[in-house]
Amino acid sequence: MKCPFCNSADTQVMDTRANNEANSIRRRRKCLACDKRFTTYEKVELHMPRLVKKDGSRTDYARDKLAGSMLLALRKRPVATDAVDTALDRIEEKLRSLGEREVPTSRVGDLVMRELAKLDKIAYIRFASVYRSFETPDDFSVAAREIKQPRKRRK
What is the dihedral of CA 105, 109, 110, 113, to 10 degrees? Predict the structure, then answer.
């Protein structure tokens, strides 16, 4: 770590403290060249995978866009904002845990469908109608049956 005052690379850590709220570590350092003290913070940098669209184009993951889609499906439904935030956190955690650099948007859509099924059945149907491009009333019936009797998990 270079000293911000004299640019010397010879610094010593005097004190280290964990900050649980911000998931960071605070380090108090002392420059051995100019004897000045300064504070640094270390924080884990987590990268979300890039998304591969149906047409093959790639885009960065955007929590705001995903939240917007979910909130649109949940519009005028009795679901707390905290519950939506928690669902988004679970989706992001699953995406990170895949350990892949790129993920197809269809996989993200499936994760959203699972979370909406837990939150609100009507929102699930709304999202499914757009995500699966429903064209007939029968498509809605199939989705309604799915939500009533969820599929058994594949092994």
Answer: 170
**Which residue ranges of the chain lie beneath pLDDT 50?**
154-155
Task: Answer yes or no: do 28 and 55 share one domain.
Answer: no
Q: What residues have CB less than 8 Å from 111, skipping those under 6 apart?
A: 91, 94, 95
The residue segments making up the domain with residue 117 are 50-148
56 and 111 within one domain: yes
Q: 39 — phi, psi (to 5°)?
A: -115, 140
Per-residue tokens: 118: 């837990």
Say how far apart CA 129 and CA 50 lie, in whole Å: 25
Report if residue 94 sits inside a domain: yes
| Residue 12 CA from chain centroid, whole number | 36
Sheet of 37-43: strand order equals 11-19, 24-31, 37-43
DSSP 8-state code for residue 129: H
Q: What is the pTM of this model?
A: 0.63
